[in-house]
Structure formats: structure tokens, C-alpha cells
Amino acid sequence: MEIMKPGQWLLTIFFWSLFLAIVDRNSVANETQFIIKMTARFVQTTLTLLPSFYIIDYLRPVFKRMSTLKASLYVLLIITINAVTTLTLVLLLMMNTSLFDFTLSAFISTVIFNVLIIAGFTITGLLVFLRRYRDMTALKQSFEQKLSAQNDVLKARLAPHFFFNTINTLMSLIESNPTRAADLLQHVSALFRASFNGAREISFEEEVALCEHYLAIESIRLADKLVVSWQLPDEDVMYDMTITALSLQSVIEKMLINVVEMSTETVYSDIKVTWIQHRVTITISMQLPKNSLMIHHDLRQNMDFYIQAERLRAYFGQSADIQSTVTNKQIVTVIDYPLQDVSL
Known about the structure:
alpha+beta, five-stranded mixed beta sheet, two-stranded antiparallel ribbon, single chain
């Protein structure tokens, strides 16, 4: 029922009824009977298709567990039974109101003729739908493979660097501070568990937790050179928000690698999250160190978030984007994507 609007359905049924009336025009004697018959076709087709579609939509969870052939046969059976029932009622009504005179043989032949036409067009529609369904399934599989490949590229670029730095930090803490080493292991475990779950949509609260795990690891390794402040929506708002896993984390990681690791100063970063008019905007601003030599041209080239943006678009549409701006004082990266408020 969601394929077309009600007005479009009624217009389609009207022209379908007109087509059937023209096909069967030999059985009418004048224009008045033609209009009556076309009206009867319109009522009969409406009473056949609309209840059938609602029944099919209601049984959709059951059909999902069936094979394609079995589900198609059930759809054909539902529409055919509704067609026989509504056509019989309409013909009986027309006979009782003396709009048309039917003999028993004419009554049976009319029912069979109409049922064959409706069954034939239903089969044709199912074949077209199944072909489109196979094409969409193949496209979805191809898209998922592309997402998986992008996710693997993302891991290949960032994980080795992060992994070896973390191992070195862990080795230095095992003897000097075992308690902090244990905390570090817990953060690493949570982060790597999420990274190997692949590209998927998670709650925003989970993503923030993963970012905090990552920042906790890096703050140990970088001797607290990074100070991060969060500006997050209320918990009730956060509860309904979603994002692709590790999108925000990977953006923070790249900014940190290209700024904090190149500096001996404390770097301050602000992360602000808003959700207004069905769009989520995440602004990550990171101050550039004053006394460190950084080539802004190189920074601009390194602030490329193409893969992360593609992963966002796969789940939230083509309007999702990630843009980064580098000035003399700071880097500002904005993650922006549409998100419908489910509470409305």
C-alpha cells in the first residue's frame, strides 16, 4: 500500500475498470449500460484489490518465513478469492436491481472470464515484482560487500597504528602501574570488539561510549596531552539517536593522529552534538598548537573522510556528509546526516 498514494490507487483502478469495460463492450447495448458496467467494474476492482493488499500487508511477517514461490501462490490465492467474492456480490446486486439480466451460464462465464483476467494480471505483476526483488537483493548484496570492503580499508589504515602504539603503552604500564594497565585492557577490549562487528547502525550512546574508550586509551599513551569536552543532547534525545558504528570515533582518531601526536603541547578539543529538524550535526573542533610547526596544506590533505562519509550515506541517505575546515588556529570537522525523530 505504500508504493502509491490513495489517489493514485483510485486513478489506477479507474483506468483498469475502463479497460475491462471496453474489453467486454460487446455485452452492452448502449452507453448507459456501458457506464453502469464500468461503475460496477470500478466498485468490484476496488473491493478486490484494497482489502487484498491490506490482508497481504498484515500477513507479511508470515510470508517472510516462506519460500518465494509459496508466498507468491498465497498472494495469488488471496486476490483470486477476493475477486470471486466481490464479483459475485456485484453481479447479484446488479441482477436484483434489474440493471442487467443474467442467465446462469452467462453469470458463470462472466465470473470465470473476470477471474482469469485478474489472475493473469496478478501473475504478471508478481513476475515483475519478483524480478525487481531479485535485482534489489543483488544490489543490496553488492552494496553490503562494498561497505564491508570500505570497513576493511578503514581498519587497515587505522588499526595497525593504533594497535602497536597501545601494545607499547600496555607493556610500559604492566610493571609500573598494573591497575592502569588493567583499565587500559578493558578499554581496548571494548573498542576492538566493536571494530570487528563491521559497519552497522548503533545507538548514539554506544558510539559515544566507544569514543570515550578510545580517548581513555589515547590519554594514557599521550600523557594526558589531549583535553576533550563534550556537549551532548539530553538523555531522552540521545536515546532515539543512531549513527554508523565507529564513524565519530574514526574521525576523532584521524584528527588526533594528525594534531596531538605532532605536538608537545596540550591540545583542547570540543565535540558538540545537536539534533534539530531531523538532522544530526556533530561538530568536532580541535585547537592547533601555537608552538608546533604544522603545514596547513598537509593537514587539509589528511583531513579526508571519504570512507566515513560513504558509510554514513549507506544508512542515512545521500545528504549525509563529513566536511573538514583547517584554519591557522583550529581544525573543525562537521558530521551532518538526516535522522527522523521516531518519537514524533
